[in-house]
Design brief:
Number of helices: 9
Distance between the termini: 47 Å
CATH class of the largest domain: Mainly Alpha
Order of helices and strands: EHEHEEHHHHHHH
Radius of gyration: 18 Å
Number of domains: 2
Length: 234
């Protein structure tokens, strides 16, 4: 099956978690909005009658149109060996991805605590306050949780001996925090040696390694979820 991924063309954003899964699986897919008239096609699908997606990312798989990052990964995981085969295992991995979704929102809110429709420059003060709370309280809670799960897994990956899409998503979390907060992350990484090792193992996987050096991988920038502002990385 040739998948069609719909997401904003200039940022990694939430679509990147889907791209990483597709790339690791060696799946055949088109990043539609990055092609000619792709944005128009994406907007047409969002405005369709019936059961249109609310917002990108969404994935077209045959006649199915699947929205929401965690929902897309839940679908892809069982079809490409990126999730446990048992119902309990599949739901556990889905639950972990939903927790990552919560973390991604909190990362975004470090630079846009008052709302996404305002410019960062209109909320510098609240952003600095939110970032301090994020690094003092939220990062240790979230990454400490995943570090503990990895240590208890008995294997190289979060659920044991086999990689799942959650491992790919945690790779992106580490990459993104290193970009947005290089100083803070450097000082924090000693707390999460297991996750850093997981990140490195994902980066070394042949399909991921090839993807990261290709033009399919959009560079981090200040329009995405992970944004580097020096005043927030004090």
């Amino acid at each position: 099956m040739r998948y069609e991924l719909y997401y904003w063309p200039g940022i990694q954003g939430r679509g990147e978690y889907v791209r990483l899964a597709l790339e690791d699986a060696g799946a055949d897919y088109t990043d539609v909005a990055r092609g000619a008239r792709g944005m128009a096609a994406m907007m047409t699908m969002m405005e369709a009658k019936g059961t249109p997606p609310f917002a990108p990312p969404f994935l077209k798989a045959g006649k199915l149109v699947i929205g929401q990052t965690a929902n897309i990964l839940f679908y892809l995981g069982s079809r490409h060996g990126l999730a446990p085969k048992t119902e309990a295992g599949g739901l556990w991995v889905h639950q972990l991805q939903l927790t990552i979704t919560d973390l991604v929102l909190e990362i975004h809110d470090t630079h846009h605590p008052l709302g996404p429709t305002l410019y960062y420059e209109d909320q510098r003060g609240p952003a600095k306050k939110r970032t301090e709370e994020f690094w003092n309280e939220r990062v240790p809670k979230y990454l400490g949780y995943f570090e503990r799960l990895l240590g208890d897994s008995g294997g190289s990956w979060l659920t044991g001996r086999r990689l799942t899409y959650v491992d790919l998503s945690l790779f992106q979390i580490v990459e993104g925090l290193r970009y947005a907060f290089p100083k803070r992350m450097k000082g924090f990484e000693w707390n999460i040696p297991g996750l850093i090792g997981l990140h490195d193992r994902v980066a070394a996987r042949p399909n991921i390694k090839a993807y990261l050096t290709s033009d399919r991988r959009i560079a981090f920038n200040e329009d995405g979820i992970f944004r580097h502002y020096k005043e927030l990385d004090a």
